[in-house]
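Q: Give me a backbone?
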Amino acid sequence: MPSLADEIAATAARLVVDEDLDYASAKRKALRALGRQNARSAELPSNEQVEDEVREYLALFCADTQPAELRTLRELALPWMARLAEFRPHLAGAVWRGTATRRSAIVLDLYCDDTKSTEIALINLGIDYEVGSRPDGHGGGIDVLSVAQRSRELGDWVTVHLVIHDHDDLRGALKPDARGRSWRGDTAALRRLLATPDAEPAHPDPTGPTPAHPAP
C-alpha cells in the first residue's frame, strides 16, 4: 500500500507537469487535495522523490513530445545566458533538470547582488520585463524579473524568469542533490547537455573556479 509520501509525490508530480508548479508549491497543493494539510514534515516526500514521479508521469503521458520541447527550451536559454553573461547566469529548474515541457518557464539564476543592474541591462537591450519576487525560504523574498520569448518551434510564448541572487551565493548553489546531480548549470554545462541529450545534469566542482564572463 502506498505511503502518504508516495501519494503526495504522485499528486504533486501531476501538478508540476500540468500546472508548471515548483516542487514546494506542488506539495502544498497536493496536501490540500488529499486533505492532509496537517501532515508532519517527516511524512512529506523529498524533492528527489517528487522528481522521480515527474519523470514517470512524463514517460507515460508525454514521451512523444517532451524530449523535443525540452531541447527547444534549452536552446532558447542559451542566447539569454549569453546576453546576461556578466551576471554569471546558471540555468535551473525543469529545463536544467530535464523534466520541462512546453508549459515550463526557463529559470535563470543570476548572481549579481543588485536587481537594478540587471534591470539596466534589460533596458539597454530594449527588453520589456515585469518585476516580482518569490519566497527565499527564510521569511524574505528574492527578486525575479520576468520576460517573454516567442518560440517559433513551440508556436507559443515562453516565460523566462531571471532570479537575482547575491554575488557570493553561487558557491553554495552548486551543491548537488542527494543523488549527486546538480540543481543548476552554467553556459558550458548547458552546451554539454545539448551535445549529449541523454546525459544527466552533472555535478559541477564547487571548489573550482567559476568564470566571471562565460563564453557566449
Confidence is low (pLDDT under 50) at residues 203-216. Helices lie at 4-19, 23-33, 47-61, 66-83, 93-97, 115-124, 170-173, 187-195.
